[in-house]
Amino acid sequence: MQKPATTRKRAPKPEAEAPKPKKAFVLDTSVILYDHSAVEHFGEHDVAIPITVLEELDNFKKGNDIKNFEAREFIRFIDQLSAEHMLQTWIPLSGSNKGRFKVLMGHGAPIDAEKIFNEDKTDHKILNATLALQHELPDHRVTLVTKDINLRLKARALNLSAEDYETGKIQNVTNLYRGSDLVESIPVTVITQLYEQGECPVEEALPQPPLDNHYFILRSAKSSALAYYNPQSRILERVDKPVAVGIKPRNAEQTFALHAILHPDIKLVSIQGVAGTGKTLLALAGAIEQREVYRQIYLARPIVPLSNRDLGFLPGDANSKIGPYMEPLWDNLKFIQNQFPEHSRESNRIKEMVEDDRLVITPLAYIRGRSLSNIIFIIDEAQNLTPHEIKTIISRAGENTKIIFTGDIYQIDTPYLDSQSNGLSYLIDKAKNHPLYAHITLQKGERSELANLANQLL
C-alpha cells in the first residue's frame, strides 16, 4: 500500500529588523565648555549647535581658565570645518561611522519659546533652534543636550527630548572605588607575621590579588593590623601610623591617606571625604614633611565665586582677589604651625618656606602651559574640576613630581557638575589599579563633635 505524500512545512521567513531611529543632537554652550570635543562623541548621529552658542563662546575665548581653553579649541574646530563648507549645511564629520554637523540659525520653529516664556534670553533662542531642527527633520529623534538642568526642564515642557551630556560620567557613583577594605576572619598567623616580619604573602591573607596600592584593615578573632598591597613586590606590608610635622592620624583611613602621601613610589593620590575628615590637613602636613624631597610645594583650589560674583568684583590686585578663596589653605597651614611653640625651629621652618616661595598658594588658572618638576602639588576642592581639567593638571607633571587631589564628590559648587560628572569622581574611577596611584575615602569626621553633627543630621 502506497503511503500518502507528506508535505513539508516551510520555515517562516525571519522578520526584518526594524531600522534604528535616526537621531540628531543639539548641544548648548555648557556642553562645549565642559568638553570641546563633544561634537565627535555621538557616533553616527547628526550633531548641531545653535548660532547663539557661537555668540556665547565668543565671550569665553579670552582668559586662562579651562573653560576659556575649551571655547578657543571649539572655535578652532569650527574654523577648520568652515574652510571648505558652509556651516548652515550638513557637513560630514571626519572619521569612520560619524554623522554630520551644522550650525542652526533657529528659523522655522512652529512655536516661539521666547513668547511662551515671555522673555528674550539665550536659553530660549537655543530652544527655538532645537524646535526648528525638529520641524526640519521629522524622521529624526531630535534631542537637546545640556548640562543646565533648568534648560532641560524647559525643553521637556515644550515636548522636546532633553538629556545631560553623558561622556565621562560615572554611572554608579555609590559604588565608587574607596581605596580600602575591612577583611574579617583573617588567620592569626597572618597578623602575627605582619607584626613580626612587617610583610606577608598576599595569597595567605586574601582569596585573590587586590588592586594596586589598596589598603586593608585585617582582623582575626583576637587581633588586627593595617596593611597595604605593594604592586612592586606583590606582597602585603604592614602600615604603621606615620607622623608628619606633628600631625598624627586619628583613624585607619587617615593612616592610609598619610601613608600614600609619604610613599615615594606613589606619584598620584586622591583623598575623598566630607568636610572635617582631614583631607587638606593631611595632604599639607605630608607635603611639608617631604620638604627635603621636593623643591617646592604648590597648593591650589578652583576659584568658584558665590552669588555669581567673579574675581573682578573684588578690590585690589590679583593676590588680593584670590586671597578669600585660598583662606582655607592658610587655615590648615596655621593649624600645623600651632603644633609647635611659636618661635621653635619647626615653626620657623614653615615660615621660611612661605617667605622663600618654597610653599606657594596659587590659582589653578596659572598652571596651564607649565611643566612642573620637583614639586609636590596639592589641589583642594577637586570635585569642582571637570575631567578635562584633571587631565590637564596631571599632564603638567615633570620629573620627581607628586600630585594630590582632595575633595568631596557630593559637595559641588559649580552649576554644571554633579557627583557623577566631576573630575574627582572621574579620576578615582579611571586611575584605580595603577601602580602610581592610590586613593582613600575618609569616612570619619575628626574636626569636632559639632562638625560631625552637621554632617550627620543637617
From TrEMBL:
Pfam families: PhoH, PIN_4. Residues 23-153 form the PIN domain. One of its GO terms (molecular function) is ATP binding. The keyword Lyase does not apply. GO terms for cellular component: cytosol. The keyword Nucleotide-binding applies. CDD domains: PIN_VapC_PhoHL-ATPase. This is PhoH family protein.
